Amino acid sequence: MGMDLMPKEVYEALRDLDMEGQDADISPAMIQILRDQGYVEIVRGVPTVTEAGLVALRAHEKHSPAFFIKPPSD
Questions:
Q1: CA 7 to chain centre
Q2: For the segment 13-31, what is each residue's pLDDT rounded down to a tens digit?
Q3: Confidence class of residue 4 from pLDDT cuts 50, 70 and 90?
Q4: How many CA atoms, within 13 angstroms, populate the side-chain half-sphere of residue 22?
């Protein structure tokens, strides 16, 4: 049985939030979706990626080769 990958938009928002922190340009609606999933919590007014969010990010990247650029094959 395969692992369910999060939708691309959710993955990208979570990744951006992880990399850019409060400077990430993420809609309040997407922040709410991430909070509902348990991937983000609000800490001192700032959306912050939770441990579960980090685990989900790594799992998504590990199981989703489509997000990686493959080197050209000769």
A1: 9
A2: 999 999 998 888 999 999 9
A3: low
A4: 6
The full DSSP string for 9-36 is: HHHHHHHHHHHHGGGS---HHHHHHHHH
Dihedral-angle region of residue 62 (phi above 0 means left; psi in -120 to 50 means alpha; beta otherwise): alpha
List the Cα angle 55/31/17 in 5-degree steps. 55
- H or E element: which one contains 46? strand 46-49
Q: State the Cα–Cα distance between residues 14 and 31, nearest whole angstrom.
A: 9
What count of Cα atoms within 13 Å lies in the side-chain half-sphere of residue 30? 18
Place of tokens 């609000």: 42
- Amino acid making up residue 45: G
